[in-house]
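2024-03-11 09:14:02 INFO worker-7 job=invfold-0412 stage=load source=structure_tokens
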């Protein structure tokens, strides 16, 4: 993208593009070229966004299911029509490859089409009462204003998830996109809902400069109108925000990081497992919460598995995500490159074997596989997320011991088991302490209708229509009649 196409961006508040006095540069992680100049929001602008969402709430909550459905269906059509712009934007703003960007467009449109019908879900129950002459009703109600924090990775779809789930159940929304992706993680969604004709104030987006997230988001924690904090991001930030939400007594949804181990048992289809791991570990340069970070492979097939995986991984084309055939683009910033390099250096210094990768050109880091990693290495204990293209493979003799070791991580997002014995796979899956587990599939199996979410340090809350639990509350009403 050249400087001529760079535009100065505004916030989106109460159905209008609201300019800001200050701006900050958003640059391409591949070559540092300027992508956009985004509004550097102030506390007053965030307050205005919350007030607009609060004012819009009664109207949005009482819209008929059919009227809301028509809006979401229109937004899905616009999203698909803008496919090529979005793929380009995701590449230049976040280094996302064409395949992942295109998948996010399809997934987002699919989510909107499903959410379009959620207004018709049952909205309560009639209960028997022990008091003669009394009827009890439980009504499911939207919460009010839901404040969302969006991450830069999977930026386009995850911003939609942050917006669509609460809105589909009658809440209004204000979001604060990541400062690394203000356009693809918030502003483009506002453009689409604006064009679709969503009512003013139903979605509001305020952006902020690096280092100003906490000050801007004070508006969300301090306003009584905000009833829930809807966060997707790291467990590090979640701990800070959860403390603030606790003080303010606000509900929270937390979609956080993961370690996502895979077990490859001795009866697994090795080629299938190699494809699933190659995709699961290195898609989007290892910058997805559900990327596979560690694979435990039965000793009898370990060497064959590693050889086939290394060959496939070494063949992945790296570079400009918009170039034909490239599947490995740049990492998001210098900090991500430094973290990936330091985790590899730490492992190799402690005796690990570098099977493939380990090199880096600019911010394009080669997909890297390590074996024989001692348990003293931080990355292999799964105690901190390495958000980059690093995979650790470990051989095991005892499948149950490997299963227990795979669970010995603070995270609990996703896991996978590869085996030719479906019953054994399902039995192990039933004991896996994660929010998602896949038998004979990759650790990443995102579908808009399925409930994504984690346990332990991977957070809480579920997507798909199960989000009704997170974004509505129950009210008891009784009628005494005789
Ligand atoms: P991050 O925690 O750095 O930022 C997430 C959001 O929080 C951003 O909007 C950021 O501006 C904001 N933020 C950061 N510090 C803040 C503060 N002190 N006060 C207020 N807001 C603050 O995460 P990221 O780097 O943008 O995203 C990557 C992380 O998100 C990874 O850990 C990844 O695993 C996780 N993630 C989880 C899921 C999921 O569905 N479980 C999906 C995508 C990403």
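2024-03-11 09:14:09 INFO worker-7 stage=emit residues=482
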């Amino acid at each position: 993208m050249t400087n001529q196409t760079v535009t100065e961006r505004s916030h989106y508040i109460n159905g209008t593009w609201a300019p800001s006095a200050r701006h900050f540069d958003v640059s391409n992680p591949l070559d540092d070229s300027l992508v956009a100049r985004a509004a550097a929001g102030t506390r007053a602008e965030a307050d205005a966004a919350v007030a607009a969402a609060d004012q819009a709430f009664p109207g949005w909550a009482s819209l008929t299911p059919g009227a809301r459905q028509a809006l979401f269906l229109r937004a899905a059509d616009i999203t698909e029509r803008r496919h090529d712009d979005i793929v380009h934007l995701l590449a230049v703003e976040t280094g996302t490859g064409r395949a992942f960007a295109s998948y996010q467009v399809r997934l987002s449109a699919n989510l909107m089409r499903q959410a379009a019908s959620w207004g018709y879900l049952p909205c309560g129950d009639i209960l028997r009462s022990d008091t003669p002459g009394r009827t009890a009703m439980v009504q499911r109600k939207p919460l009010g204003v839901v404040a969302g924090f969006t991450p830069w990775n999977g930026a386009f779809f995850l911003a939609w998830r942050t917006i669509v789930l609460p809105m589909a159940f009658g809440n209004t929304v204000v979001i604060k996109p990541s400062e690394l992706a203000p356009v693809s993680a918030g502003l483009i969604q506002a453009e689409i809902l604006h064009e679709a004709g969503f009512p003013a104030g139903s979605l509001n987006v305020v952006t902020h400069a690096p280092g100003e997230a906490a000050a801007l988001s004070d508006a969300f924690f301090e306003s009584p109108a905000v009833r829930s904090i809807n966060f997707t991001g790291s467990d590090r930030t979640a701990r800070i925000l959860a403390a603030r939400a606790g003080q303010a007594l606000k509900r929270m949804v937390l979609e956080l990081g993961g370690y996502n181990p895979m077990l490859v048992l001795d009866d697994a289809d090795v080629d299938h497992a190699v494809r699933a791991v190659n995709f699961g570990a290195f898609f989007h340069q290892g910058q997805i919460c559900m990327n596979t970070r560690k694979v435990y492979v039965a000793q009898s097939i370990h060497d064959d598995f590693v050889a086939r995986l290394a060959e496939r991984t070494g063949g992945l084309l790296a570079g400009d995500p918009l170039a034909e055939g490239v599947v490995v683009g740049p990492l998001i910033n210098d900090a991500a490159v430094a973290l990936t390099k330091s985790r590899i250096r730490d492992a190799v210094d402690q005796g690990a074997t570098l099977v493939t990768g380990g090199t880096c050109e600019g911010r394009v880091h080669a997909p890297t596989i390590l074996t024989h990693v001692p348990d003293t290495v931080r990355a292999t204990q799964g105690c901190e997320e390495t958000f980059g293209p690093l995979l650790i493979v470990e051989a095991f003799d005892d499948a149950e011991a490997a299963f227990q070791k795979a669970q010995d991580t603070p995270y609990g997002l996703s896991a996978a088991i590869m085996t030719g014995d479906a019953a054994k796979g399902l039995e192990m899956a039933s004991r896996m302490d994660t929010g998602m587990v896949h038998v004979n599939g990759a650790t990443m199996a995102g579908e808009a209708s399925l409930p994504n979410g984690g346990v332990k340090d991977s957070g809480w809350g579920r997507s798909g229509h199960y989000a009704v639990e997170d974004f509505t509350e129950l009210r008891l009403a009784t009628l005494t009649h005789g």
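2024-03-11 09:14:09 INFO worker-7 stage=report msg="The chain is about 40% helix and 20% strand."
2024-03-11 09:14:10 INFO worker-7 job finished
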